Amino acid sequence: MANPLRNIIENDKKEMLRLNRLADQVEAFQDDMASLSDAELQAKTPYFRQLLAEGKSLDDILPEAFAVVREGAKRVLGLFPFRVQIMGSAVLHGGNISEMRTGEGKTLTATMAVYLNALPAEGVHVVTVNEYLAARDGEEMGELYQWLGLTVGINTSEKSAAEKREAYHADITYSTNSEIGFDYLRDNMVATKEERVQRPLNFALVDETDSILIDEARTPLIISGAPEQENTQLYIRADRFVKSLTDEVDFKVDLEAKTVLLQDEGIAKAERYFNLDNLYGASNTALTHHIDQALRANYTMDNNKDYVIRDGEVVLVDSFSGRIQEGRRFSDGLHQALEAKEQVQLQEDNRAMASITYQNLFRRYKKLSGMTGTAKTEAEEFREIYNMEIITIPTNRPVRRHDEQDLLYPSLRAKFGAVVELIKKLHDNGQPMLIGTVAVETSEMLSQMLDQAGVAHNVLNAKNHAREAEIIANAGQRGAVTIATNMAGRGTDIKLGPGVAQLGGLAVIGTERHESRRIDNQLRGRAGRQGDNGYSQFFLSLEDDLMIRFGGERIRLMMERMNLDESDSVIRNRLITRSVESAQRRVEGNNYDSRKNVLQYDDVMSQQRNTFYDNRNQVIEEEDTLVDVLMPMVERTINRVVDSHTIGKPEEWELGPIVDFAGAILTVEGTVTVEDLQNKTQKEIEDYLYAIAKGVYAAKEKQLSDPAQLLQFARVVILRVSDAQWTDHMEAMNELRDAIQLRGYGQLNPLIEYQNEGFRMFEEMIAGIEYDVTRLFMKAEIRQNLR
C-alpha cells in the first residue's frame, strides 16, 4: 500500500529539483543582463510582448524575463533577488503558494512573477491585507515596473470611480481584498458598461495568503441597500430579557461551538416576559431570532476582544490580526444586538443587495497564487477550496532563532507575573521584545503592569492601529518593548538595531496560544529573519480561553498527580505543547468545517449569482436592440400563464383568467375575449397571445423614431425589475439557510434541501422577473422625450 507521507516527500523533492533547474536558467542570464545599457534592458519589455504576440508562452520566456527583473531591481531599487527568491517567484507564476519565512523578502520575490504575468496586458492584481501595504508596495515596487515600461495603479477605498477605473486598467494593480470584492459587486449593479471599473479577473497574487483566503473567508462581503421598516425596540427588549437570565438554569453556553441555547426554564421565562402562549409559534419567529442574537451578543462576545466601542459605535476587531475592521458590520441583526447590549445608538440593519464570499471571488480569477510565511497547516483547505499547492521555499540563510518550550501556569495571575519578570530581565539587558497578546483587553492589562514595573513600551492594538507600521518597524531597536495584539503590523519588516544581534536578537514573547497554530507561528517568525539571532517563548495558563475550551481539565488533573501546588508552579513539558497543539488542531478543524459549510451554501448562491450576472451583463452589453432578450421573456410568461390554466380536458380549462391576464398585462382590456380563445389548442392560444404581444412591440418601435431610445427603455425596465427581484431573492435565500437546519432533525440533509429549495426559488425569481418585465414594457406609454 502506498505511503501518503512518502508521496508528499517525493513530490516536494521533485518540485525542489524543478525550481532549482529554473533558478539555474535564470542565473545563466545574469552576466548578459548586467552588460546591457538601461535603454537596452528597458527594451526587453516590448521585445517580450512581441514574442508573446508571435505565439510564445509565458513559460517560454520566464528565465529571461526573470533575469531582466533581477537586473532592473538591482539598478532601480538597489536590491538583487536571491536564488531562493527566484524559486519562490516561479511557484507564484505556477498558480501556487510560496511559503517563505518572515524576513525572506516576499515583496521583492513577487516582482518577477508579477512582471511576467503583466506582459500580456490583461491585468495583474497584487492583493494586500490593508491599504497602507497596498500603497507602500505599489509605490516602492512600482518604481521598478514603471522603469521597465509597465503601468501601475493603486486602488483604495477613497478613490472615485474614474480613478478606480484607471487603476484597474493599469498592467499591475495594487489593492486590498475587500476593495476588489466590493468593486466586483458594484460592477455587477451598474446600469451601463461605462460605469464599470474592473476588467475581467485575470491573475491575482495574494500577499499574506492565509490571512486573506483563510482567516477572512468566514465573513462574506455584502453591499447593503435601504432597509425595510424595522422595530429597534425589539432589539432593546430582547437584550433586557436575556440580561435577566441565569446561566446554566435558563440557558447553556457551548464554549467550543460558541453557541447559546435556551433551556426549558428560559423558554418559560420568555413566554411570561413577552406574554406569549408559545415562544416558538409561527407568529413569533422575528422575536425568537432577536432573542437568539441577544444571547449570542451577551454571552459569546466580549468588548475589547471581539469588538471595541469607538465614538459611540460598536466596531469589529479581526480576531486573527487584531485590526479594526473598518466598515464591517455583522449581518442578520447581530450587530444591532451588540449595540443594544452596549447601550449605544442602534443603526438600521440594511438589506443585502449583493453578496459574495472571498472563496468564490478569488476562484473567479483565471490564475491565483499567494505568498505567506505560514500556510502549511492549512494545506488541505488550500488544495480543496482553491486548487493551490503550498511549496515551502528554503531560507536564504539558516534559521538561528531559539524556540523555548511552552511554560504553563495554574492561573492568569501567576502567568502574567512571570511574563513581567522576564520582560524586566530582558529589558535590563537592552534586548528588544515583541510581546503578542490575543485580545485588546490583555494588551491593556499588560501595559498597566509594565507601567507599574517602570518599563517603557509601545502598545499596538485595534484601538491605535494607524501607527502600527511605524511602531513595528522600530520593534527591533535596542531596549524597544512592543506589545502587539496578535499579528498587528504584519507585512512590516522588523530589522535589528546596532548591537542587538549580540544581545540575542529580537525576543518574541507569546502571552497566550492562539486558536490557530499559524498565528503563533507568525508571531514567532518575527524573530530570526535572514539568519539573525532570535528567541521565542510562549506562556500559558489553565485559565486561558483555549485551555478552558480544550483539554485544560486533563492537564489540571496531571498537575494534581504530580503534586504541584496551585500557587506559582510552572510546568515545562513537551506533553503540554503537544496537548495545546492537539487542541489547536481541533479548533482549526472546526474553523475549516465552518468555512467549508459557508462555502457549500454560497456555492449554491454562486451558481445563481453567475447566471444572474451573466444575464444582466448581456442586457448592459447590448448596443443595438434588446428584442432578442425581451420578447422571449414575454413568450415564456405567456406560456406559463396558459399552461397553469389549461390543465385537464379542454372543457375544464379556465379561459377567464387568461383573458384577464391579456387585458391587464399584454394589451388593452377587452381586446381579447373568452370567445377568441375557445376551440383553440393550448399551443394555438399561446401563439395567438404572442402575436398580440409582438404587435404591441412593433407599435412601440414605430412610435419611437430613434431605436436607441427603445433600447434604453427596455434596458431600464429589465435592470430595475431584475435588481429588485434579486434583492428579494437573496433575502429569501438567507432566511431559507437559517431555517433549513431544522430539517436535519427530520433525517434530511440540510444542504441538499437548500440546493433543491434554492433552485426552485431561483426558477420562481426568473419567472417573476419575466412577468414584471412583460407587464411594465407592454403597458408602458413611451414618449419621444424619454431620456
Automatic annotation (TrEMBL):
Main enzyme class: translocase
Reaction catalysed by this chain? ATP + H2O + cellular proteinSide 1 = ADP + phosphate + cellular proteinSide 2
Keywords carried by this UniProt record = ATP-binding, Cell membrane, Cytoplasm, Membrane, Nucleotide-binding, Protein transport, Translocase, Translocation, Transport
Q: What is its EC number?
A: 7.4.2.8
Mention one GO molecular function.
ATP binding
Q: How does it assemble?
A: Monomer and homodimer. Part of the essential Sec protein translocation apparatus which comprises SecA, SecYEG and auxiliary proteins SecDF. Other proteins may also be involved.
Give every Helicase ATP-binding domain span. Answer: 87-245
Q: Under what name is this protein listed?
A: Protein translocase subunit SecA
Q: What cellular-component terms does GO give this entry?
A: cell envelope Sec protein transport complex; cytosol; plasma membrane
Family membership noted in the UniProt record: Belongs to the SecA family.
Topology in membrane = Peripheral membrane protein
Gene (UniProt): secA
Q: Which GO terms describe its biological process?
A: intracellular protein transmembrane transport; protein import; protein targeting; protein transport by the Sec complex
What this chain does, per the entry, is described as: Part of the Sec protein translocase complex. Interacts with the SecYEG preprotein conducting channel. Has a central role in coupling the hydrolysis of ATP to the transfer of proteins into and across the cell membrane, serving as an ATP-driven molecular motor driving the stepwise translocation of polypeptide chains across the membrane.
* Record-annotated SecA family profile domain positions: 1-571
> According to its UniProt record, where is this protein located?
Cell membrane; Cytoplasm; Membrane
